[in-house]
């Protein structure tokens, strides 16, 4: 204990990145060992919490906030120290783990490192060895907390970027809707309405080609009433029963279709009809026409 008092008087307290004392959880099934470790660690200015086994240690971690590091014995009943370290790292990767063992071996060392342990102490150990291990734990804890904070900032930045993108899309949608409303409000003839619909479809999607069909009264054919850009002659009047054109399928089933451009190996339907997006136009819940861009 004299050594502990001397170190307490000559050495500054070991602190975390926040400037407060390092909060340590000591886990050992030997009460005498826990008491001795606790006394030494408190002499270094650390805040000490004790647990008699791994299960109690996990309860302490869940109920007591701000634990910076753990010092755990390997050989314990119920849950050994390696499994305890693994469970701790599952709860919080930024908690530093130091393993204590009386029977060091390569196998135990490798297993503990894989579980997440950062340092080892072999019984019996000197006070200066304990202080050095705790100082290393405090440094690692500060680094891990900084990384955790940076990751949180990155995630927040990504979330803000997502919100900004959604806001930009909403503003663009509002601008398009305003343009559509303003444009269609000036239309006086049906033919002019059809032309403006195709023009607005191109403007809204960035396309240079659009086609608009209306369904005839019998519901058997699509008649092209407006187009922007080139188109195949057989698309002027489309028989819903026999045509393989995508617009015929959209009119029959009432579902929009999006075709992907795969470059040199484009799908047959795309290379044949050169459509990208085909949507049904409804009037009173019934398909009244088809628009493609």
TrEMBL record:
Domain of life of the native organism: Bacteria
Any Pfam family the entry gives: Response_reg
PANTHER family: CHEMOTAXIS TWO-COMPONENT RESPONSE REGULATOR, STRESS RESPONSE REGULATOR PROTEIN 1
Organism expressing this protein natively: Dissulfurirhabdus thermomarina
GO molecular function: kinase activity
One of the GO BP terms on file: phosphorelay signal transduction system
Entry-linked Gene3D superfamilies: 3.30.450.40, 3.40.50.2300
Sequence positions bearing 4-aspartylphosphate: 73
Protein name per UniProt: Response regulator
InterPro entries, per the entry: Bact_response_regulator, CheY-like_superfamily, GAF, GAF-like_dom_sf, Sig_transdc_resp-reg_receiver
PROSITE patterns per the UniProt record, alphabetical: RESPONSE_REGULATORY
Domain Response regulatory: 23-138
Keywords of the record: Kinase, Phosphoprotein, Transferase
SUPFAM superfamilies in the cross-refs: CheY-like, GAF domain-like
């Amino acid at each position: 204990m004299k050594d502990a008092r001397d170190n307490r008087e000559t050495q500054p307290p070991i602190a975390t990145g926040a400037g407060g004392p390092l909060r340590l959880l000591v886990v050992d099934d030997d009460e005498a060992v826990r008491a001795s470790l606790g006394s030494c660690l408190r002499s270094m200015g650390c805040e000490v919490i004790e647990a008699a086994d791994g299960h109690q240690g996990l309860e302490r971690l869940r109920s007591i906030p701000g634990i910076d590091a753990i010092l755990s014995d390997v050989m314990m009943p119920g849950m050994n120290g390696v499994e305890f370290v693994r469970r701790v790292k599952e709860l919080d990767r930024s908690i530093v783990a130091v393993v204590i063992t009386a029977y060091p071996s390569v196998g135990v060392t490798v297993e503990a490192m894989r579980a997440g342990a950062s340092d080892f102490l072999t019984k019996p150990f000197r006070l200066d060895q304990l202080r050095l291990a705790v100082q290393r734990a405090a440094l690692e804890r500060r680094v891990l907390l900084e990384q955790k904070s940076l990751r949180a900032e990155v995630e927040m930045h990504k979330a803000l970027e997502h919100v900004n993108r959604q806001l930009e899309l909403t503003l663009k949608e509002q601008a398009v809707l305003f343009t559509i409303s303003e444009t269609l409000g000036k239309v006086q003839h049906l033919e002019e309405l059809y032309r403006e619909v195709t023009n607005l479809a191109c403007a809204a999607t960035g396309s240079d080609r659009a086609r608009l069909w209306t369904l005839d009264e019998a519901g058997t054919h699509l008649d092209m009433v407006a187009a922007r850009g080139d188109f195949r002659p057989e698309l002027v009047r489309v028989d819903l029963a026999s045509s393989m054109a995508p617009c015929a399928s959209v009119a029959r089933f009432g579902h929009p279709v999006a075709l992907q451009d795969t470059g040199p190996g484009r799908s047959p339907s795309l290379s044949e009809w050169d459509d990208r997006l085909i949507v049904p136009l409804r009037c009173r819940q019934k398909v009244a026409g088809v628009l493609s861009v």
